[in-house]
Design brief:
This protein has about 350 residues and is of the alpha+beta class. It has a domain of about 110 residues: Winged helix-like DNA-binding domain superfamily/Winged helix DNA-binding domain (Arc Repressor Mutant, subunit A), CATH 1.10.10.10. The strands form 4 sheets. A 4-stranded antiparallel sheet has the order 5-4-7-6, with helices on one face. α1 packs across α4 and α8 packs across α10. It is rod-shaped, with a radius of gyration of 43 Å.
Length: about 350
């Protein structure tokens, strides 16, 4: 029973260590994945803003649309700002700041609106610029651009080609940029786990290496704990102990057993024992009159594969009984279901 406990403890340790390793790696990989995904979304958003600014420069500059001298700004307190574009009466445009923007922000909205009225946004040109920005940043994601009415939600224009499936609308994968009070550009991105993991090569390599190192430590500790005897088994030697105790001589009836020399002497003859015979007889001598468990003998002589060599143990015991048969008072007694004991 003690031998079984001794074998189970290191196994439980190895299992606990493996589960802890897998759990730690899973938590770490999830954290690294989410962090990398956030970084990727930040890079994508930055690329889109640069592409949008670049697309605007391809259209008519603001100074060509509006002559600063032809604009007057009328304010009524801080809540109402009126921008009047001085044109022929039929073309006079009055803008009211009903959304409560700051003065600077409101003027920017007016200029953008004027630009859109004269030269509308080319959504396909913007898509090409955005794709180029993503290529430079080495971010291979599929996307769809949509020009939409912010008030009604109606899609006015889309880059989605016929026959292609639109990416799923996920809030974390969507970028919205307002062009005016009426319209906005929406970017729907298809970010797959494969895309994120592809950019985590360095992180994955470090994680695998660290996991391998920890696993090797677990294996080493498992083997160390497995070889460490319990206090109750300290009196029972490992196979190698017979070499360390050359002067430990045992008298078994009319026989003399010298484990240091692997010799069993009696009745005028000396029998040279092999390593397994010497180890088994030594264990029986160390506990003369007491039972030595079968599992102990198997584990000490054949390790993890002890159960496979169960028949071999029976063969060695039969050989030892044959060596000792000349003295009828010496017997290796089988304790059924437990083990063996040497009596004389």
């Amino acid at each position: 029973m003690n031998s079984n406990k001794k074998n189970i403890r290191p196994l439980l340790f190895a299992l606990a260590g493996s589960v802890s390793l897998l759990t730690t790696q899973s938590v770490w990989m999830h954290h690294a994945y989410m962090l990398k995904r956030q970084q990727m979304m930040s890079q994508i958003n930055e690329a889109f803003q640069l592409a949008y600014q670049k697309e605007q420069t391809y259209r008519i500059p603001v100074v060509d649309i509006v002559n600063p001298g032809a604009i007057t700004i009328q304010t009524c307190g801080t809540e109402e700002i009126i921008i009047v574009r001085k044109c022929p009466d039929a073309d006079t445009v009055v803008y009211h700041n009903i959304s409560g923007h700051s003065v600077e922000s409101f003027i920017n909205h007016v200029f953008l609106d004027l630009r859109e009225q004269i030269v509308p946004l080319n959504i396909y040109c913007l898509a090409e610029l955005f794709a180029g920005m993503l290529y430079e940043k080495k971010i291979p994601v599929f996307f769809v651009l949509e020009r939409m009415n912010t008030r009604t939600g109606e899609i006015l224009e889309s880059t989605l080609l016929s026959g292609h499936q639109q990416p799923k609308m996920i809030r974390e994968n969507t970028i919205i940029s307002e062009m005016s009070d009426k319209e906005a550009i929406r970017v729907i991105l298809e970010i797959t786990p494969e895309t994120v993991f592809a950019s985590m090569t360095g992180t994955l390599t470090c994680t695998v290496c660290l996991g391998a190192i920890i696993l090797l430590c677990i294996v080493f500790l498992y083997r160390f704990l497995r070889k460490t005897p319990d206090k109750e088994d300290d009196k029972l030697p490992l196979t190698e102990l017979s070499i360390q105790l050359p002067n430990n001589i045992f008298h078994i009836g009319q026989y003399r057993f010298d484990p240091g020399k692997n010799e069993l002497t009696g009745f005028g003859e000396t029998i040279q024992l092999n390593k397994k015979e010497n180890s088994i007889l030594y264990a029986l001598c160390m506990k003369q009159g007491n039972v030595v468990e079968r599992n102990f003998l198997l584990n000490e002589n054949w390790g993890n594969f002890g159960e496979i060599y169960s028949r071999s143990l029976d063969t060695y015991l039969a050989t030892l009984r044959k060596y000792l048969k000349k003295d009828p008072n010496v017997q290796i007694v089988t304790v059924k279901g437990v083990g063996y004991k040497l009596v004389h």
